Amino acid sequence: MWKYLKIVLALCGFILNTMILHTNPINDVTNLISIIEKLRPLHKKLGKPGPHDWLAHHHEPGQTFQEYYKSNPMTPRGKRCVIYIQPLGEFTQVQRRIVVLTSDFMSRFYNLQVKVQKDIPLSVIPNKARRRHPEWGVEQILTSYILNDILKPKLPADAAAYIALTISDLWPGRGWNFVFGQASLRERVGVWSIYRNGNPAESENSFRLCLLRTIKTAVHEIGHMFSMSHCVKYECCMCGSNHREEADRRPLWFCPECMAKVCWATCSDPVDRYQILAEFCEEHGFNNEKEFYKKSIAKLES
Ligand SMILES: [Zn+2]
Ligand SMILES: [Zn+2]
Description:
The chain has helices at 2-23, 29-39, 54-57, 65-69, 93-110, 143-151, 204-225, 244-249, 256-266, 270-283, 287-301, and strands at 82-88, 113-116, 130-132, 139-142, 159-166, 169-171, 181-183, 189-193. The strands form two sheets. The protein has a five-stranded mixed beta sheet with strand order 2-1-5-8-7, with helices on both faces. It starts with a helix and ends with a helix. It is 45% helix and 12% strand. The chain is built from eleven helices and eight strands. Strand 3 (130-132) and strand 4 form a beta hairpin. By secondary structure, it is α/β, with parallel strands linked by helices. It has two domains: 23-73 and 250-302, no CATH class; 74-227, 3-Layer(aba) Sandwich (Collagenase (Catalytic Domain)), CATH 3.40.390.10. The structure holds zinc ion (2 copies). One zinc ion is lined by residues 231, 234, 236, 238, 254-255, 257-258.
């Protein structure tokens, strides 16, 4: 009897939670659509892709805010309200500092608690999931092994997203040279790598650059884990990137459509969210980003 009562209570909790999430005025669809319109003038439309850029090689349709919320996306819901970071490999002290700061940013960006799991050594990766790149000679790890064999069996019960961060280079399989990260749009698992982000121990500037690159890939991959497709409309952190220069060209912020998806999915207040992101940027010397967030607040408050 008690068992059935517990199931009914759990179901009621889930329904109530879903109702609260999707009827809260903060993430009211009409309100968010008007916010998108207010913010549009601040954002730059994507130009024609260069010959090596992502969109020159991947023909993607994009996804509006309306298409997103109607697609029954994977979002933090019920008890699934924590983002877990899984370090994979031997991190130096400085790299660990990058992980801590990235967690802080992710928590502000997605309005969720972020927890860092105990390290997993690279020795768990078998030879069949490793290779040396045929031209560059660098050792790479197969992303599908990390997603399917390491993360999925360990997915914590309260995980809204479970993402591995590795020091190794990643490749997703035949036909690819490498990827900065990869995530499942439906299974709450993802992986990203610090390998191509520079040496954070070299100088203050290289630390800041490594942090910026790591954060960009983190918020991009978490976006995928909440069922967000690549952005094809604006200069936006949800755009696909084929190479380092293209990834560096992307801003740290999301365009209005992608931002509305985050606020809807995570029940975030857009102004409060921009405020805490601006505070992080001020603290860590990301001045352009801080100015952009401040301008966005001014637009929404005008
Ligand atoms: Zn992507
Ligand atoms: Zn976008």
